[in-house]
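Field guide to reading this record: the first block holds the primary sequence, the second block holds the structure written as discrete tokens, and the final block holds curator observations. Each block starts with its own label. This record concerns Large ribosomal subunit protein uL24, catalogued under organism Streptomyces iconiensis.

BLOCK 1 — SEQUENCE
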Amino acid sequence: MKIKKGDLVQVITGKDKGKQGKVIVAYPRESRVLVEGVNRVKKHTKAGQTARGSKTGGIVTTEAPVHISNVQLVVEKDGNKVVTRVGYRFDDDGNKIRVAKRTGEDI
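BLOCK 2 — STRUCTURE
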């Protein structure tokens, strides 16, 4: 998967189109990522009690995973944020390095 935890991404389609956020968790098997502040959903949690006796539960707003095809990596070039695709190259030692296609710089 070309997008990893900690990357800054921008949503390119859907209800949150144009929003940017940091990747919190990547789910490679499902081809999904959890992005900070994007695809927020309301979740109804069952009421319960904590050890101290206070009530928990109610409606909680949280992020839901987004498909990897709906986000694109954001890199910084000359102080501007640029949306780009990701490619790969190998260095002299044979290590695989991610490269921003638009800027040509290593990520």
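BLOCK 3 — OBSERVATIONS
The mean pLDDT is 93.
Strands lie at 8-11, 20-27, 32-35, 40-49, 55-63, 66-67, 71-77, 80-84, 86-90, 96-100.
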